[in-house]
Amino acid sequence: MAQTVTPPRGMRDFLPAEKARREHALGVIRGVYAAHGFDEIETPVMEDSSRLHAGLGGDNEKLAFAVMKRGLGEAELSAAAAAGDPLSLADLGLRYDLTVPLARFYATHRAALPPVFRSIQIAPVWRAERPQKGRYRQFVQCDIDIIGDATPLAELELLTATVATLDALGLAGCTIRLNDRRILAGILAAWGVPAELRERALITVDKLDKIGVDGVAAELVETGAVAAPDAVVEALHGLTTADWHLHDGVAPPPAWLDLDAYAELRALREALPGAAIEFDPTLVRGMGYYTGTIFEIAHPEFGYSLGGGGRYDGMIGRFLGQEVPACGFSIGFERIVDLLELRDAGRPRAVVLVHDGAVPAERLLAIKRELVASGVRVRLERRVKNFRALLDRVTADGFDAFASVTAETADASALEFRELGE
Questions:
Q1: pTM of the model
Q2: Regarding beta strands 90-94 and 46-48, do their DSSP bridges make them parallel or antiparallel, or are they unpaired?
Q3: Closest C-alpha among 419, 367, 371 to residue 395
């Protein structure tokens, strides 16, 4: 009995119509990013294992696919097993995001780059996730980053380009949620979380949309981050209703609010009056490398983020030996591509030439060359008995019209096209 042949778990094949749809969306994203002054780069799919496990990627480091060293012998395998350290057998790994490779790229090529470098990276990444709807082991990320600008202008450029991209994709109803790591630090300090447990506590707070207020409070107590859950429950309820009026000169601001960070967030919002921007003090972003402003794209119909990013001023210094400010924003391509009703503007007309077996090949190719030269996409299909099935298939593949080619058809001017899908 023949076995079912499928891609590796958590990875996918794409049929021509879906591939074309994805590439069209990626083209829209690239075009908007480029129009806003960003330049596209490319980095290897693998990085040194030590870089991928340098404590910068948070929980994603645990999901990295390791690549074993070549030529390992029994002694090395036995030593790794005895030490309980399988990672010692790997010297490379598949990238789990595009930010760590970008930091390495900048450290490598800094002398050839401008003082403020605006990059585009659109490429696949790999994580050993538990596959489920909307979550894959191989997926595409669409990142823009600004390196070398410590001012809020970097955040404003990223937010502006991202909002413009969402508009160009026709994805309406999105909101950008803003927060700052300094505000999160103030919240944890107000709860009395010990310094050594704060990163762990942030991982718990980041689960708020999954396990709820009571679940977060219970886990914080379980991990020893807080002593009593009641005060945390009350505080979290207050945080979920926070807005842009916490420091308006009327009432005193909350004790946990970092006033400098909050003022910077308000300035970002005021500089983008046409964008839907909310303040969310419970927004964490799971990556451990964020140092300041953080942001996410939310949509009212979905309980998960459609993208996000933030400022990560400390990362490049780990590679370069000196601090370099950096900030980035990533669109969750796999999550949004299925939501899009992409416009066909700019797509070339696509036609099918249905030919009889008696038509000489050289004439078919001559007609095809003539149409292609005029900017039309052309496919040749031999006429079959089930003509309706053929038309249904090419319609699903994105073709617009068809014409019959017979032995009497002299050139492209003699073709009579009929629209598909009508």
A1: 0.85
A2: antiparallel
A3: 419
